[in-house]
Amino acid sequence: MAVKEAKVVFDHIFNELELVVVGQRQLLEQMLVAILCDANALLESVPGLAKTLSIKTLSQVMDLKFARVQATPDLMPSDITGTYVLDEHHGKREFTFQPGPIFANIVLVDEINRATPKTQSALLEAMQEKQVTVLNKTYPMEKPFFVLATQNPIEQEGTFPLPEAQQDRFLLKIRVDYPTVKDELEIVERFTEKGQLKVPKAIIKKDTLLKLQETAMLIPISNDLKKMIVNAVTQTRKMPELIENGASPRASIGLVQAAKARALIQGRNYVSKEDVIEMAYPVLRHRILLSFEAQRKSMSPDDIIAKIVK
Amino acid sequence: MALANTAVDALLVASGAYLATVVAGLPPWIALAVALGYFPQRLRQERAGMSYQAVEAKTVRLRERLSTAVDNLSRENFVAKELRSDVTKDMRGIQTGDFLDTRRVMVKSSIMIVLLLCSIVYSSFSLSIADALAPIMAKARGAHTFKGLYDTSGNVSFEQGDEDIFGESSMAKLSGKSISLELAPMATAVDITQLNPEQAKRFTSTEIPQVEASADGAYRSSIPADQEETVRKYFDLIEQV
User: Fold this and answer.
1) Is the ipTM of this complex over 0.85?
2) Which residue among A3, A223, A271 places its CB closest to the CB of B82?
3) What long-range pairs does A98-104 form, CB within 8 A, spacing at least 24?
């Protein structure tokens, strides 16, 4: 699909999404970036900021199967991946595999930090391998496959925080802020008055999304920008006074892919420096571990990333 | 564009070189030679500097796109081809004037005008730094302007020979001959052969006689005939100095 045609498609997608989701343009864009990169995203926000609504609306607009998993401490791996159950069919009893909610195109895992490490691992394995193995049998995931895992930054009691090595498997860590006053007024109007809510219609099909994913990875990037990306990522390993552990080469790959996807969404057939700077924050913020000195100065990962890219 | 920039720079160099030749008293063709020597080297530099990065820097609409297209020349996917096609189309719209740095040209032209004005002013006042520096240069060399009056160790002596007091070959031969000169200034007559110890002199003014002089009369009235030519040439040389 040509880049200009892709831009038209994305404009329609955003128009349709904004019929339901007010504001949150950055959230929608970054979710689209993760989908185009055939990767997964970690979303950190307080409750009530339209996380579920956004991803559900996105699945409707893209005509994709959507599944939601609420992670709790008693959630088992088989609750996610599926399991064999004894089924009676035509007088015969046999074990049949009942796929779990992970066998959808878009999976929302709410509060992943509430699930036990064992359950987290099962999910992360599925995310990484795009397949599930149950009783020595492998079941591949249907393409496209996107997992949006959420975390609540304020209620950390009784949680199992994702270790940094596991967080590294998410392409983006999306941070959602409160809407503006104007947006919140619009939200109140839409959700409190009857007949204001619109049902989004499907804009693209699965095949179109797969083509868009292919096109995104074909967007050319200049050597200077590649060097800029690699320098930025290696710089995270050379700041011991602020960063205890820097980002891995996976971050360099992720940033290139994310920048390409953003360029396509913006309707450009080349990656611009602006794409790299914009995507540096969601790509790097969960891959750097702040030192005690940085925490003492109340610095956030975004502050350090701003120093590096600017 | 490279040719135009080089021509402007060469003219600037020529102006500077011309001023230098005027100041140093050298022939002006040296300025032309310097400019002609500078021109090909500068043109080579200008052409080498017209890289795609320079083109990208000058053209806003090509920023980032041109370098991305160049870095991905080997890729044959449809997106890279689309980018190349767009860049080629935009490059056709680039004009030579887009690369003209008018501010720089104005500055160079102004400097050129100032240099030429300085050359004109300098020539019109017939100044010569070379001549002004000659005594200093001669002293630095250990030579003396008045050759024959001082030797290199600074002692006063008279070097006899067939050169005049400025070291130039002269018609006047000072060795072995005595020249009787009677100088006749306007109001008084001074006979230098009759030098008396200093004494108070009483000068009386006399009426200025009507002088009807001809060139012959002024030079030849008291000079022996066979030495008139010599004395005339001597005064001519002094006048030139």
Assistant:
1) no
2) A3
3) A99/A139, A100/A132, A101/A67, A101/A68, A101/A69, A102/A67, A102/A69, A102/A126, A102/A132, A102/A141, A102/A147, A103/A67, A103/A132, A103/A139, A103/A141, A103/A142, A104/A64, A104/A65, A104/A66, A104/A67
User: Which CATH number does the domain housing residue A267 bear?
Assistant: 1.10.8.80
Q: What is the pLDDT of residue B45?
A: 77
Residue A203 in domain = no
Write the CB contacts of A146 (distance below 8 Å, at least 6 apart in sequence). Answer: A34, A35, A38, A39, A40, A41, A105, A106, A107
- B-chain residues within 8 Å CB-CB of A3? 79, 82
- Please compute the mean of the pLDDT values over residues B123-139 and round it to a whole number: 66
Q: Which of A92-106, A229-243, B39-53 has the lowest mean pLDDT?
A: B39-53
Instruction: Please tell me the predicted confidence (pLDDT) of residue B144.
Output: 47
Determine, for residues A269 and B82 on separate chains, whether the beta-carbon distance falls below 8 Å. Answer: yes
Q: What is the pLDDT of residue B58?
A: 66
H or E segment to which residue A227 belongs: helix A223-235
Give φ, ψ of B164 to 5 degrees: -80, -175
Q: How many residues does chain B have?
A: 241
User: Is the predicted pLDDT of residue A267 greater than 70, yes or no?
Assistant: yes
Least CA distance to B76: which residue of chain A? A218
Q: Which residues span the domain enclosing A18?
A: 1-192
Question: What is the per-residue pLDDT for A39?
Answer: 94
pLDDT in tens, A31-79: 999 999 999 999 998 888 888 889 999 999 999 999 999 999 999 988 9
**Structural domain contains residue A24:** yes
The one-letter amino acid at B7 = A
Residue whose C-alpha is closest to residue A169's, from A129, A133, A131 = A129
When pLDDT is averaged across residues B112-138 and rounded to a whole number, the result is 74
Task: List the Cα angle A96/A98/A101 in 5-degree steps.
Answer: 170
For residue A197, the model assigns a pLDDT of 72
Mean pLDDT of chain B: 72
Do A153 and A242 reside in the same domain of the chain? no
Look up the CATH number of the domain holding residue A20: 3.40.50.300
pLDDT of A115 over the 80 cut: yes
CB A18 within 8 A of CB A199: no
From first CA to last CA, the distance across chain B in angstroms is 53
Same domain (yes/no): A168, A35: yes
B contacts of A2 (beta carbons < 8 Å): 78, 82
B125 token code pair: 């006042």
Rounded Cα distance between A17 and A58, Å, is 7
Tell me which residue has tokens 């040296």.
B30
Of the three residues A192, A210, A245, the one that is the final residue of a domain is A192
| pLDDT score of B237 more than 80 | yes
Q: Which positions 208-227 of A are in contact with B (Cβ < 8 Å)?
A: 215, 218-225
In a domain, A100, yes or no: yes
How many angstroms separate the first and last alpha carbons of chain A? Answer: 34
